[in-house]
Design goal:
This protein has eight helices and 19 strands. It is an alpha/beta fold. It folds into three domains: 56 residues, no CATH class; 169 residues, Vaccinia Virus protein VP39 (Rossmann fold), CATH 3.40.50; 87 residues, Rossmann fold (3-Layer(aba) Sandwich), CATH 3.40.50. Strand 12 and strand 13 form a beta hairpin.
């Protein structure tokens, strides 16, 4: 039986002043798709705010080995992610890199953008669960979590992590380990989701069991400075924030972080509940309704009261198709099934990915309607 890990101190302030804000009862702990016979594990997803730092954070954590026992291909599918990897790689290529460590390299999609580079470098990927599919003589793959992995005396001039920091349970320890592995004057390249924009827009893939606290630029500047990194450059868009930081031999001056997110989070919850109420009213007299995404945003909608009058979930990931969305009875299908329906209705709440998904579904069936 799985036991949760209690977080009773703030991830940044290390204070015991966490106050509960909202709890999602019996939420699925895995945000992917599984074979139908697999038994689901549900757990209350309870969010608190620290009175000292203002940060929204989970107060019950899922053990990492359980949470990431199976990969779910996040960041591997779609035009938006391809553009992210391309833009982030161009951001990195402007610097000097010889011995690289990429933390959480997943299937090697970022490294793919460096395959045609002619300069000499070595590239290490440290990844706990996904299979790295790229093969290249410059690439070495290590299996594990950074906090537990021993590189011996090896240090790196460049350390990269993309949409990884928000998955860590102790960001200060994570950045400290990176600092220990980085040569003086070495560079850290970071990509994090633009959580503030996402919450303001009501996107449902930001705060989850995997993303256990709110993170933004100010939070990041604070923890980087504490571990001897100076921020050199920031690039921001609606999807992600890119940061370049250099390791120095002193502790830079920084402002202690305080920007309460309680109101932002409460408004976010209210927005989702009102959206679900509106969708349910529309679905009352409709048939042939589908839900897009074998992922956490669908679990959010269903756990918060979305009507179960749904034919199937749709997803482009072939590894999810004909499997069941964890925590539900709904089977995932290839979006091409829409071809067989007249005026199918599709619920899409996929954040920044929604427009590209709509365009794809209309190319399959121009009569598709969206809720």
């Amino acid at each position: 039986m799985m036991k949760t890990i209690k977080r009773d101190r703030c991830v940044l302030a290390d204070t015991d002043d966490l106050t509960e804000v909202y709890t999602f009862k019996d939420f699925p702990v895995f945000c992917g798709c599984v074979d139908s016979e697999l038994e689901d594990v549900l757990c209350d997803m309870s969010w608190s705010v620290s009175e000292s730092s203002g940060i929204i954070q989970l107060n019950q954590l899922i053990p990492l080995d359980f949470l990431y026992s199976v990969g779910h291909n996040s960041g591997n599918i779609g035009k938006t992610w391809r553009e992210h990897h391309k833009n982030f790689s161009e951001f990195i290529k402007r610097g000097n890199y010889k011995n690289v460590l990429e933390i959480g390299g997943a299937t090697g999609n970022l490294f793919n953008n460096f395959l045609t580079e002619t300069k000499y470098f070595t590239w290490n990927i440290l990844e706990p669960c996904s299979e790295v599919k790229v093969r290249d003589k410059r690439l070495r793959v290590h299996r594990g979590f950074l906090e537990r992995y021993d590189f011996g005396d090896e240090k790196f001039d460049t350390i990269i992590h993309s949409h990884v920091l928000e998955h860590t349970y102790n960001p200060l320890e994570f950045i400290e380990k990176i600092s220990d592995l980085t040569v003086l004057g070495g560079t850290q390249y970071i990509s994090i989701p633009n959580m503030r924009y996402a919450l303001e827009m009501g996107y449902m893939n930001m705060l989850t069991f995997e993303h256990s606290y709110f993170i933004d630029i100010d939070f990041l500047k604070c923890i980087l400075a504490r571990k001897q990194f100076v921020v050199d450059e920031i690039v921001e868009n609606n999807h992600s924030i890119f940061i370049k930081a250099t390791k120095v031999d002193y502790t830079p001056e920084f402002e202690e972080y305080f920007s309460s997110h309680k109101e932002l989070f409460v408004n976010y919850i209210d927005k989702i509940l009102k959206d679900i109420e509106s969708i349910n009213q529309s679905m009352h007299s409709l048939d042939n309704v589908f839900l897009f995404g074998g992922h956490v945003w669908s679990q959010y909608l269903l756990s918060m009261g979305l009507s179960k009058n749904i034919v199937n979930i749709l997803d482009n990931d072939v590894d999810k198709q004909d499997k069941r969305l964890y925590g539900t009875d709904l089977i995932v299908k290839d979006p091409k099934v829409l071809y067989n329906y007249t005026e199918p209705k599709v619920i899409i709440r996929a954040g920044v990915y929604s427009e590209e998904i709509k365009a794809q579904l209309l190319s399959i069936n121009p009569t598709t309607k969206f809720l």
